[in-house]
Amino acid sequence: MTRVLISGSGGMLARALQQSFERDFVLAIPREEMDITNLQDTLKTVHDFKPDIILNPAAFTRVDDNELFPEKSFLVNALGAGHMATAARQIGARLVHFSTDYIFDGKRKVPYREGDLPNPLSVYGASKLAGEKLVRKICSEHYIVRTSWLFGYKEGNFINYILQSLREEKFVRAAMDQVGSPTFVSDLAGAVKVLVEEPAYGTYHLTNSGFCSRYQLAREIARYNGCSEKMILPLKMDDLNLKARRPCYTVLDNRCWRDRGFHPLRDYHPALDDFLKR
Ligand SMILES: NC(=O)c1ccc[n+]([C@@H]2O[C@H](COP(=O)([O-])OP(=O)(O)OC[C@H]3O[C@@H](n4cnc5c(N)ncnc54)[C@H](OP(=O)(O)O)[C@@H]3O)[C@@H](O)[C@H]2O)c1
To answer: How does 69-103 read in b/e, with b if 16+ C-beta sit within 10 Å?
Structure first.
């Protein structure tokens, strides 16, 4: 049986990964039991369990808080990723590390390919990019999976925030000038399960197909829930006065995934339907 270690087990993607690897022998471990910023803890856990595959969705993901705590940002998202890569290399495990569309500056108007030049606008984006670099340098048997706009079962993310606001009959402000591909964690986790079956190491963009603005997405959610689309107010990202700058356009071309012969992930609409139905 394949032995799989999953970091940051309480996280949204980590939970979906636990489901998609449920037929394997999985150790899903919370931050309290394995803090990836602590090299000794990380090495001990990995050496004790001896996984064949390490999945590293653990990250400091609150984008605005990353601006406030840049040291923590680089500790978790960069050094922590490096520790996971060191552990994977020491025991000869394959490592799947997750990264983000926020490594790009969003100034393009066509989908980003894996080889396009990163230029992060935020501390979060910069720390995730540094994490990618460490993983590439330390562990050759790596898959770096860049994804975007995750939705799933976790309070506080964009879709759940809209649902909550609509339930409370509150108006929702959403940016018209931020465009990306919403991605269902269950679809992503299923694709990762397929990916690790092949020694096709490298960097992948992996998102649901299709794209929209945050404003369009919020309207789609309102419509789906039988709420008036007038509850959604359009505005520009700058008007939101967020601490971290976000890239405007981060549609990711899943080119390497397709070139390797893998099936593209479905459009985000049916994925959103599935999520909202549940
Ligand atoms: N969410 C998105 O829209 C999105 C988009 C693109 C890429 N990504 C990437 O996808 C991955 C998963 O994202 P997600 O939304 O599932 O994140 P999430 O729900 O915030 O989960 C992250 C998990 O990591 C844990 N963690 C934080 N610091 C840790 C540490 N030092 N050691 C061990 N665990 C630690 C957190 O635990 P605590 O809660 O206890 O701190 C949390 O359980 C991340 O790498 C993220 O950068 C996410």
So the answer is: eeeebbbbbbbbbbbbbbbbeeeebbbbbbbbbbb
